[in-house]
Amino acid sequence: MADSALQISLPYLLVALAFGYLLGSIPFGLLITRAAGLGDVRKIGSGNIGATNVLRTGNKGLAALTLILDALKGTAAVLIAGSFAPEAALAAGFGAFIGHLFPVWLGFKGGKGVATYLGVLIGLAWQGALVFAIAWLGVAIITRYSSLAALIAAVAVPVALYILGFPTIAALFALMSLIVIVKHRANISRLLAGTESRIGAK
Fold first, then answer.
1. Is residue 4 in some structural domain?
2. Which of 36, 129, 130, 160 could lock 121 by a disulfide, CB 3.0 to 4.6 Å apart?
3. Among the listed residues 124, 96, 125, 122, the one whose alpha carbon sits nearest the alpha carbon of residue 111
């Protein structure tokens, strides 16, 4: 979508934010693993409800499905809200991201937001999503650390968006990237200590 400053009234932005939050708070990882008879994904691995932890169940298909659905809820929030007002897409996308991190249904204890971050990025600026994908895949293939790949990609995205001419979206993703980094603080500590789990490890 085109980059633009916010021009709609605060009430509409709050509605878009709330809509995005409710959509983003759907805990697909938890719902999918329970439906598959694998129990509560929060009781294994990192305790996270995202795709990386679902992968620790040993079911790659469920992990891929979780990744896709967690991303799509971000994209859907952006596209639906954006159909009413382009500026509302920004609020809805941020709401979806926050909803995944702090879902009301799970006592505000959700995932780390990387897949939803990517989904919002796809909806707002596909060019940034391409930068994210290249950075994530490159680091993940070389190091096999999902967390490190996410951190590097999150740093690269706002810079790339600004250079590509999306200053408003870049500002939003600078904030979202900061939140992603904060949510990964335990991973950062383990990376520095050399104890972080690699992709595929249970």
1. no
2. 129
3. 96
Within 13 A of 14's CA, how many CA atoms are on the CB side? 3
Q: 196 Cβ partners below 8 Å, 6+ apart?
A: 145, 147, 148, 187, 190
Mean pLDDT of 148-163: 97
Asked if the structure places residue 26 within a domain, the reply is yes
pLDDT tens for each residue of 18-30: 999 999 999 998 8
Range of the domain at 54: 10-193
Q: CB–CB of 49/41 below 8 Å?
A: yes
pLDDT at 6 (0 to 100)? 52
Report the range of poorest mean pLDDT among 21-30, 102-111, 116-125, 152-161.
102-111
Supply angle C-alpha 99, 111, 147, rounded to 5.
Answer: 135
> Could you tell me the two tokens for 37?
């008879």
Q: How many structural domains is the chain composed of? A: 1
- Would 167 be classed as within a structural domain? yes
Q: Is residue 3 part of a domain?
A: no
